[in-house]
Amino acid sequence: MANITIRNLDDDVKTRLRVRAAEHHRSMEEEARTILRDAVKPGRSTRNLAEIARSHFGPDNGVDLKLPPRGPMREPPSFD
Length: 80
Known about the structure:
This protein is mainly alpha-helical.
């Protein structure tokens, strides 16, 4: 097993980690291991926000929004 040291951890982050660990009845060290293990586990989704939104609200799920036609852009303001 490997070891890791995390320097310059904000006090607030450490406090939240301690509280989270207590809520899960684990040590801070075990809670950190669990968080890291979940964050890098294989098969984790790499989809972006648009892909996720489309998967929930796209035409395949009964949502077909009609977009208004786009017209020409207005002229930018002049500061002369």
